Amino acid sequence: MGAYRADDDYDYLFKVVLIGDSGVGKSNLLSRFTRNEFSLESKSTIGVEFATRSIRVDDKVVKAQIWDTAGQERYRAITSAYYRGAVGALLVYDVTRHVTFENVERWLKELRGHTESNIVIMLVGNKADLRHLRAVSVEDAKAFAERENTFFMETSALESLNVENAFTEVLTQIYHVVSRKALDIGNDPAALPKGQTINVGSRDDVSAVKQSSCCSA
Amino acid sequence: MTLEPPPLSGFSFKLYVQWATFLDSEGRVMDSNALRKRIFYGGVEHKLRREVWAFLLGYYAYDSTYAEREYLRSIRKSEYETLKHQWQSISPEQAKRFTKFRERKGLIDKDVVRTDRSLAFYDGDDNSNVYLLRDILLTYSFYNFDLGYCQGMSDLLSPILFVIDDESESFWCFVQLMERLGPNFNRDQNGMHSQLFALSKLVELLDSPLHNYFKQNDCLNYFFCFRWVLIQFKREFEYEETMRLWEVLWTHYLSEHLHLYVCVAVLKRYRNKIMGEQMDFDTLLKFINELSGHIDLDAILRDAEALCICAGENGAASIPPGTPPSLPVDSGLFYSSQDDEVL
């Protein structure tokens, strides 16, 4: 990806994609995290959009560029650029609609087919506020996440539950991958989460943009 | 270059008082070219849209009489009921074994409740118009089973139902619109690719520095205009403005592809900013997305008209035959089967 021109200051820029079936709440997770907004009547996403927010990890400023797109697979062909350069993904399902959980496997396959192997993935069960309508158990989702080596969290964009945690966790993990690579340690177990294998490749496989201090547009 | 009165330049041009003068005693439109020209430059009074849109969309033939149109409506109404009954008669037991139906219904159910809900017409719980949107879209997915339902279609249907305000009539007008815009939703996205390609050719013709800038910055795929083209700027303007824009586009008066000149007009309006700020693809995408609600429709239509005239035959030659919304070149099958998956 080309250098991202921004007038704010940051140490790292990480591209994170939101994927999952239509109507699981991807856009509301995005707006909750980047603008602290939620809308019950938000429109379906057409094309691709993204928003940014910077957070602090250790003593570094990490700028997250979070991409959102339509949930219908029909549009994948033209949004293949969507995945380009992504170093993190939130794979979202709706805890009240089991079919959206069943489709997670296919989304994961597509994600892994389009991204580098060390991408940080978090399975996100959204709409956890709808307790009386739950159709996917925490246990099932956890088991899936462990099997597939992804992180897992239940969220509610409506109640602002765990949204901050989910994004922060993904960004922190990406940061660990990148900083480990930068330090060229390669084998620091402390930097890896339990049960999570992150392959740090030799090439430009984590396309994080590191801003040098002298670089200003 | 001097121009005719600019499009939508004033309410005095609105087609209302003169409507009757365009029809003969039996209701035929005597001069469809003059009618389309009038609409192109003046728009349509809202009360008249219901009738005029049916002509513009091709549901009514210009040379049809009042009686023929009344007959058409009655035939089409019963055809619609037959089509609708196809999915209404699917029992829960049958639906269990009909994944494609469940998936499509699920997508439609999810989309209709987030389509233009801020508009009074679609506002509130248990809104009957929201159910009509659902029923029409579900019926369309049986009428055109190969294409099915795609996100964006609810945006295209919403103003039609709002204007036509009749279930069966809205369905058939939507069918007509989809005859032209259906390829936008093809699985292989060829309809979108051909329009975005034509757009790049038009920018090359009408603003070569901007074209070169896009070329240097890896922006020639024009994906940042995807939403504009897919649903005819529906998300970029207020509802009333969208209706005004659509009826101008549907006249096909200067070009079937005026929407592409509208794209060029918007890009040209912001060209200095785009190039001056050295926007890369991501920044440009964000910038274009955020233009929604901030585009001056009247000014853009004036520019688009001027660009279309200025491009002339070279412009038309930049757009390959069959590029939507032109009707398909071959009259055979419109759609191959689209593997419609939720994922």
TrEMBL record, chain A:
| SMART domains named among the record's database cross-references | RAB, RAN, RAS, RHO
What InterPro entries does the record point to? P-loop_NTPase (IPR027417), Rab_GTPases_membrane_traffic (IPR050209), Small_GTP-bd (IPR005225), Small_GTPase (IPR001806)
Mind telling me which SUPFAM superfamilies this protein's record contains? P-loop containing nucleoside triphosphate hydrolases
Q: NCBIfam families under this entry?
A: small_GTP
| Similarity comment | Belongs to the small GTPase superfamily. Rab family.
Q: Which PANTHER family match?
A: DRAB11-RELATED
- What this protein is called in its record is Ras-related protein RABA1f
From TrEMBL, chain B:
Q: Could you tell me the superkingdom of the organism this chain comes from? A: Eukaryota
**Residue ranges annotated for the Rab-GAP TBC domain, each copy included:** 43-253
Record protein name field: Rab-GAP TBC domain-containing protein
Does the keyword Calcium belong to this entry?
no
Please report a single Pfam family linked to this protein. RabGAP-TBC
Question: Which SMART domains does its entry note?
Answer: TBC
| Keyword set, alphabetical order | GTPase activation
